[in-house]
Write a structure and sequence with these properties.
mainly alpha; 5 helices
Length: 121
């Protein structure tokens, strides 16, 4: 089996695997943010989901959710970009150069995000 085929298949699977957790984490941040700033929305969500202001504050500032968002977002973005490059860039040298530069840039961004999280302890 071709090595590039396996890498592409794994990349597609990782993109699909990380999409659902990213959606759940993003919705959690979205809903808890609105619960914290809107008294009307807080009343509705407190009645529907039993999430009041203190629960929303805890979820919105939870360190585990932030790390999960960073890690899943990194994997999803990198693999998704890899899929797009494989689909639309025809020249192997250009594609590999773009993949390597994207990996380096993504690692720089994720390291800055993790360092900023560790410094806020």
């Amino acid at each position: 089996m071709d090595k590039s085929f396996i890498i592409r298949r794994v990349s597609i699977l990782l993109t699909e695997f990380t999409s659902i957790p990213l959606l759940i984490i993003s919705l959690t941040y979205f809903l808890t943010g609105y619960i914290m700033i809107s008294p009307f929305f807080e009343k509705i969500m407190c009645n529907i989901l039993s999430i009041c202001y203190s629960d929303a504050l805890y979820l919105h500032t939870n360190r585990f959710l932030r790390y999960s968002l960073i890690i899943f977002g990194f994997i999803h973005g990198l693999c998704g970009f890899h899929n797009l490059l494989n689909k639309y860039v025809g020249k192997n040298v250009l594609r590999e150069t773009l993949i390597i530069s994207t990996l380096i840039f993504s690692l720089l961004i994720i390291s800055l995000a993790i360092i900023s999280e560790l410094l806020s302890i």
